[in-house]
Amino acid sequence: MTEIGTLRNAGKDTLRDVLTRLEKEGAGLGHFNVSDQVLLKAVIAAAAETTFPVLIGASEGERDFFGARQLATLVKTEREESDLPLFLNADHTHSLAKALEAANAGFDAVTIDFSALPFEENVAHTKEAVQAIKAVNPAILAEGEIGDIGTGSEIKETAQGGRRLSTPEEARQFVEATGIDNLAPAVGNMHGMLKSMVQGKAKKHLDLERIVQIKQAAGVFLTLHGGSGTDDEHFRKAIAAGINIIHINTELRVAWRESLDKSLARDSNEVVPYKILRPVVDSVKQVVASRLRLFHGQAVSPEAVGTVA
Ligand SMILES: [Zn+2]
Fold first, then answer.
1. Which of 33, 81, 255, 260 has its CA 20 to 30 A from that of 175?
2. Ligand 1 center to residue 248 CA distance, Å?
3. Rounded to a whole number, what is the largest CA-CA distance in the chain?
4. Distance, CA 307 to ligand 1 centroid (Å)?
5. Nearest CA to 215 among 164, 261, 270, 172?
6. pLDDT in tens, 132-167
7. Contact, 102 vs 142, CB < 8 A?
8. Which H, E and C letters describe 212-255, residue by residue?
9. Nearest to 16 by CA among 168, 143, 127, 125
C-alpha cells in the first residue's frame, strides 16, 4: 500500500500543533462526525464561518458508508482549496486492519477502541495498533480508550446505570503501557442522547474533579467522547480541567433528521436533491458553529445549542 502522508496543510500546523496551541489558549478542539457529504459540507461551512480548526470524525460504520479513502480525499481537496485547518480522525476503530486502513488513507488521527475488552487485553491490542499506525506515519495521533461510556450516537429512552468511571491510576498505567498520544476516559460522559436531552429538558454532567486528576496522572491530551447534550458550563469547565478534544455526533444527527423532515415536508413535489438538502446543511452547520464558539470561550445564545428541535 502506498503511503500518502497525513492531510496537514502544506506549511501549516499539524494536528499536534493545533492541540498544543488550543490548550495554551484554554480552548477545546471540536470533533464532529460525518456519514455523508451533507454532514461534511456542514462541518466545513462551520469551520469557514468561525475560522476555528475542526476535527472531522468518522467511525467504522460511517467510514464503511462514506468510504475511508473517499472521505480522506474529499477532506484533502477541501483543505487545499480552502486553506482551512481541517483534520480527520478515524473514530472508534476496533481492529488493527481498520486502523491501518485509515492510516494508509491519510487520516491525521485514529481512535483505537478496545475498551470493551478487559484492561490487560485493551493495553495489548492498543499498543499493537499504536505501533502499526506510527510505522505508516509517525505524525498520526493515536488515541486510546478506557472505561465504559456506552455505544451508539443515537436517541435513547433511558440511561443505562452502573457504568464504571476511569481512575487516574489506570489512566497513568494505560498511557505508559500503550504509548498513546491522547486518552479518552469515562468521566460521566455517554454516547448518544436521552429523549429528555433532545427536548432540552435534561443535560449531561461531568465529573470535573476526576478530569483534573486523570489529566495530571496521564499527562497527555484528553478526549471527551459522547459530548452531545452536555451542559454548556460543564463543557467550559471540562476544557479548563484538561479536556482537549470534544466529540459531538448525536446533536448533528438530530439536526440532520429534523431539518430533512422539515425540508421534505415543505413541498411534496420537490425532487431536486440540492434544493432539499441545502437547508439541512445549514441547520447542521449552525449546531457545529455554536458548539465551536462555546469550545473557544465565546458567548453562545441559549437557543443555539442543546435544543436542536
Ligand atoms: Zn465516541
1. 33
2. 8
3. 60
4. 21
5. 172
6. 999 999 999 999 999 888 888 889 887 776 678 999
7. no
8. HHHHHHHCCEEEECCCCCECHHHHHHHHHHCEEEEEECHHHHHH
9. 143
Sort residue 303 into left (φ over 0), alpha (ψ -120 to 50) or beta. Answer: alpha
How far, in Å, is the centroid of ligand 1 from the Cα of 225?
4
4: cell is 500518502
Cell numbers linked to 53: 480548526
Ligand 1 centroid to Cα of residue 92, in Å, is 6
Residue 133, Cβ neighbours under 10 Å: how many? 25
Q: Give the model confidence (pLDDT) of 64-106 as tens digits.
A: 999 999 999 999 999 999 989 999 999 999 999 999 999 999 9
